[in-house]
Amino acid sequence: MSPRTAYLILSLLICMPFSAGARGNKTHAAVALNDTSPLVGSWQSSSFGTQTLTTCPDGTATLEMRLSPLAAVLYGRELTLQLKWSLDGQTLTHQIVSGLPTRGAQKLTKKFGETYTYRVLEATREQLVVEDINTGKISHWTAVDSKLND
User: Which CATH architecture group holds 3-148?
Assistant: First the structure.
């Protein structure tokens, strides 16, 4: 197998770091939120390693990623992104502002862009489920324990 073929296969396996893919056959209808409070807090996903998304009421967020070995080959073992986020009805937008290490963040944004748009399918104290508008992939995020103890 040529190095180019191996790289393409690896890229396909990794896909988009923010998308976890569909879990099970459960279907969701998009929900419109009247305010952003259900989205504020810390969320975890096991997509391509472990991701922790911390969203703040001021529209900023931090995404800390400990990537799986396959994803780490391209972006490094750990990656931290600073985001701006906004919600318009059921549409959640994340925009990458910066990231560390810089080289991994630049590779990620070059490949997938700086802006990600999702349809909010479920937003509760325990779970956040979003669908990537461009790919249709569904991501499941679970509230970090501290959020449940508020």
Answer: Beta Barrel (2.40)
